[in-house]
Design brief:
single chain, 568 residues, alpha+beta, Heat Shock Protein 90, Ribosomal Protein S5, domain 2, formyl-coa transferase, domain 3, 8-stranded mixed sheet, 5-stranded mixed sheet, 17 helices, 22 strands
């Protein structure tokens, strides 16, 4: 008996849909691309339960006639190409004729559409790829598509969707991409009957970026404008000193299509070269206009991957443009010089008595014999010497030179104080004389909404203020010397890069992040403040490491110094 079978058409449709529709954000992507291809200038997206219950996209595009609307749910039906030549010179975002059929096979679909020349519109309801009802209806010119109960008939796919917040953030990020590159189009997003953002049409990319990220962010960008017969590049890159720990602000577009191009990203990072420290990333918003015949967008159903006919010139051009822009007079950063082979024989500590610590040895390390078996109370024999490099505190105790990282020490003191206050229910709240307003991008706004209840347990009082900002009314008294804006911004940043968990450890993670706003390198402290800091540090249960595992103290003995100077 034959083992190979031809699959039924409904199963084939669901398998094919899996290549195009992976999650609610995939539906939003396909529908927004259809709206843009239809010439829309106003696009409204509405979701319920992060798109799992409802996704609705309304536009003012050209609309569809009745026959076209019915045909649009058939596989491989499209108005955008008709032959191989069209595929090689594709100008539209969509062209496969798979979007609506794929969506219709895994959801309940409603299409309401009308052309500007029609006297009435057309209503079409589809379930499991089959037409349930259709009729003429009154509606404005354009199209509304409602997608309900996604994956209701594919439980395996539904099971693998992430949390509501994760799926919502995917949608926010996706619409933000299209809003950036289509800055002359209005984008509005409503989630569970609440408006998340509403970007009116902008006259320039710069204005749209200001709408999304705020005016202060725009001031940290450098414009890019390059034109050539084969390729044009426009947009913005961040100044060398404006960097991020993740790539959430890296956006690249080719012929108005959001793409993930390793070639472009690699060229940009190479252009930054020594301007970036390890694990730092720039912000960039680059739009490429390239002749369609020079690229292949038909690599993957999501159309995110692009193949260049000739990668070499693209790489070298992008790298040189970025390098040239960064080396103009007004943006050249100070270059840090390294002392090669300085203290080359000095080794890191062999161990720490209280906790294991990861060490990175660079220009200067501590002798192997050094340990941190220090006393937990400040000895009367401790003699304060001073500070070096505006960061390290030097003190002498008996025959030992103590070196204390003032930032790590302050972090530890604040962390233990905050932790003990919460445990003992003695947390003091500092009301701000003037509430602090924090402008956020839609994604950052959503993150802060998620963290709000945890922050309140730590003594923060924050309230939503409009659709893109929060106001901070109070903070824990123990960190009242820090900027509320810096604290909240740092917490959001750490959440983005996954350093703040979603589980039971979230309070501890937030406390550690809040304490990062402690005394920094370069902050000046008086001798009295330093002595108080040292006294508080040695009172900690574990004064030897900061909340993030870095050492706070190390020492060099007189005997070690004698050996270094060949006295022994």
């Amino acid at each position: 008996m034959s083992k190979i079978k031809i699959l039924p058409s409904d199963l084939v449709s669901k398998i094919a849909a899996g290549e195009v529709i992976e999650r609610p954000a995939s539906v939003v992507k396909e529908l927004i691309e259809n709206s843009l291809d239809a010439g829309s200038k106003y696009i409204i997206a509405e979701i319920k339960k992060s798109g799992k219950e409802l996704i609705s996209i309304t536009d003012d595009g050209c609309g569809m006639l009745k026959d076209d609307a019915i045909l649009s749910i058939e596989r491989h039906s499209t108005s955008k190409i008709s032959n191989i030549t069209d595929l090689e010179t594709i100008q539209t975002l969509g062209f496969r004729g798979e979007a609506l059929p794929s969506i219709a096979s895994v959801s309940n679909l409603i299409i309401i559409t009308k052309t500007s020349n029609s006297s009435s519109g057309f209503f079409l309801e589809v379930a499991d790829s089959k037409i349930v009802s259709s009729k003429e209806t009154g509606c404005p010119a354009g199209t509304t598509i409602e997608v309900k109960n996604i994956f209701y008939n594919v439980p395996a796919r539904l099971k693998f969707l992430k949390s509501d917040n994760t799926e919502k953030n995917k949608i926010i990020s996706l619409i933000t991409e299209y809003a950036i590159v289509n800055f002359d189009v209005s984008f509005r997003l409503i989630s569970d009957n609440k408006e998340l953002f509403n970007y009116p049409p902008a006259n320039s990319l710069q204005i749209r970026l200001a709408q999304i990220f705020g005016n202060a962010f725009i001031e940290e960008l450098l414009d890019i404008n390059f034109k050539h017969e084969q390729i044009s590049i426009s947009g913005f890159i961040s100044k060398p000193d404006k960097t991020f720990l993740n790539r959430n602000r890296i956006f690249t577009f080719i012929n108005k299509r959001p793409v993930n191009s390793k070639i472009i990203i690699s060229a940009v990072l190479n252009g930054y070269d020594e301007f970036l420290r390890k694990k730092e990333n720039p912000a960039l918003f680059l739009m490429f206009d390239i002749k369609p015949e020079s690229i292949d967008v038909n690599v993957h159903p999501t159309k995110r991957e692009i193949k260049f006919k000739d990668e070499g010139p693209v790489y070298s051009t992008v790298r040189q443009i970025v390098r040239s822009r960064l080396t103009t007079k007004e943006v050249i950063p100070a270059i840090e010089t390294k002392n090669e082979n300085y203290a080359s024989t000095i080794k890191p500590p062999e161990n720490f008595s209280s906790a294991p610590v990861k060490y990175t040895t660079q220009e200067f390390s501590i002798p192997q014999s050094a340990t941190t078996n220090f006393k937990k109370s400040l000895s009367t024999q401790l003699k304060y010497i001073g500070r070096i490099f505006e960061l390290y505190i030097l003190a002498e105790e008996n025959d030992e030179l103590l070196i204390i990282d003032q930032h790590a020490a302050q972090e530890k003191v604040l962390y233990e104080k905050l932790k003990n206050d919460i445990s003992n229910k003695t947390l003091e709240i500092q009301n701000l004389l003037l509430p602090v307003n924090i402008e956020l991008s839609p994604k950052e706004f959503s993150i802060l909404q998620e963290l709000k209840s945890s922050l309140e347990k730590l003594g923060f009082e924050i309230e939503e203020f409009g659709i893109s900002s929060f106001i901070v009314k109070s903070i824990p008294a123990v960190i009242n010397n820090a900027s509320p804006l810096s604290i909240i911004t740092e917490i959001i940043k750490q959440k983005k890069v996954g350093k703040i968990s979603d589980a039971s450890g979230i309070l501890d993670d937030i406390m550690k992040t809040a304490c990062k706003t402690a005394v920094k390198s370069g902050d000046k402290l008086s001798e009295i403040e330093i002595r108080i800091l040292l006294d508080d540090l040695f009172k900690c249960s574990n004064p030897y490491t900061c909340p993030h595992g870095r050492p706070t103290i190390t020492k060099i003995t007189k005997d070690e110094l004698d050996k270094r100077f060949l006295r022994k």
